[in-house]
What we know:
With 240 residues, the protein is of the alpha/beta class.
Amino acid sequence: xxxxxxxxxxxxxxxxxxxxxxxxxxxxxxxxxxxxxxxxxxxxxxxxxxxxxxxxxxxxxxxxxxxxxxxxxxxxxxxxxxxxxxxxxxxxxxxxxxxxxxxxxxxxxxxxxxxxxxxxxxxxxxxxxxxxxxxxxxxxxxxxxxxxxxxxxxxxxxxxxxxxxxxxxxxxxxxxxxxxxxxxxxxxxxxxxxxxxxxxxxxxxxxxxxxxxxxxxxxxxxxxxxxxxxxxxxxxxxxx
Length: 240
């Protein structure tokens, strides 16, 4: 799994890297974020952005797609080869194909220019809350259920569990979540690379229902993927 590069300034403020070749836009975003409690670093082109990611290790990145020197999508793909740092993509293009390209390259969220600063702030807070899976292990065992990430297999009481690729990806993400409560929007984002704006979040509910039927003796009273009423779902732990 890619490392999540995180950093905070000496005064405890999270560091956000703003990458935009338009000086006035970049300055406006920087001023807003600083007023709302962030420390901000800036870059005006693709190569400078990659250098800042390596040297400064920001906690989140606001990335314009239309960059000189190196296209924003290429910058994002390069970042994703080494880091799970949250990235919000900025672009003046509002076509669905551009949104999909951003998500395919590894974007965590998407904001169309001209940017609404309060919206950007809300989306930034959301991606920082989501974080990354917190358990660094390749094998999970609980009540006879074994999820082996290295082998990409799941067994229950020694018997293989047949899962679709998406069911496996969802179960694996749950196992790595360290018992955190995960809402459907977060699961759509991490497992489907999608958002509720253009994919029905009910698909998460349906996939969880199918997984429960395959791994729980009593799917109506699930042992492994628990429902947290009004909030989402969590993967059970030995202490649950």
